[in-house]
Amino acid sequence: QSSFRPTTIRLSKASKDLSNTSIHPTLGKDSTLPQNRPNKKNPAFEPAQYQYLVWYFFYGTLANTESLDHILGILHRAEMPVLRSSSMVDGAIKSWQGKYKALVDTPGSHADGWSYQVTSEDQEEALLIYETENYEIVRCNIKLSSTGAEMEQVVQGCTFR
């Protein structure tokens, strides 16, 4: 009889399932409503499932450069993540279980935070694992604040809900 006992490690990561035929899932929007269905003016929905570069809106721990640096495994100072002050609409940041920040659908509301441009599937995978299965990736519109070099702009991106 063998004394071997395998170790099982459960991988808990956030889900990402962006539709290429509808806006589903988009923060604060119901994809079944007629005005949110595909049409000739808007045949494609972005960002796509495997699109990189893609802006991510962060709040809470991920909005901290040092935490993001650690999660992404960045080793060289020249590669430190650059966060840009931003806000997004149709969501509000609430408290979950008394200690975590969570973004929830709240049409008409806005939330302030920071955004980072994810450059690869590896970076995104690290973020999915960090956030765990308690969150899902959803599309959102992000308003990037102006900086000394760049003007204010609205981009289509993702966030964790």
From TrEMBL:
Species name: Glonium stellatum
Annotated protein name in UniProt: Putative gamma-glutamylcyclotransferase
Every Gamma-glutamylcyclotransferase AIG2-like domain range: 56-151
GO MF terms, alphabetically ordered: transferase activity
SUPFAM superfamilies in UniProt: Gamma-glutamyl cyclotransferase-like
Keywords on record: Transferase
Ribosomal protein keyword on record: no
Region feature (Disordered): 19-43
Family membership noted in the UniProt record: Belongs to the gamma-glutamylcyclotransferase family.
